[in-house]
Amino acid sequence: LKLQFLYFIGFTIRKMRSLLFVLLLAGVCSGNELLGYLEDWVNVKWWDNNIPGNCLMGCFEPQPYITSLKPYSSVNYGFTFLTENPTPSQVSCSNAPNSSGASGPCPVWDRRAIYLAAASKNGAAAITPDTTAATPGIVSIAESSRMAKMHPDGPKRFKISLGGWSDFARVGTVQNARSIAKLMGKLVLWTFADGVDLDFEHLTPFATINGDDEFAAYNALVAALREELDSNVKPQWSSFAATRKQQLQAEYNALQPWQQADMKPYYQTNMNFMDEVGKNGPDHLEVSWTTRFNAFLPAGNPWNYLLPGSPRPNQTFATDNEGAKIWPQSGASFDTANIMAYDAGTPAGALQLNFTTIMNNFVTYGKVPKEKINIGFEPGEQAAGGVWEGMAADKEIATYAKQNGFLGAFVWSVNPSPTTNPNGTKLAPELAANLNNIIKPTWRWGPAPVYTKCDPTTGNWPGL
Question: Which residue has the higher pLDDT, 163 or 1?
Answer without folding.
Answer: 163
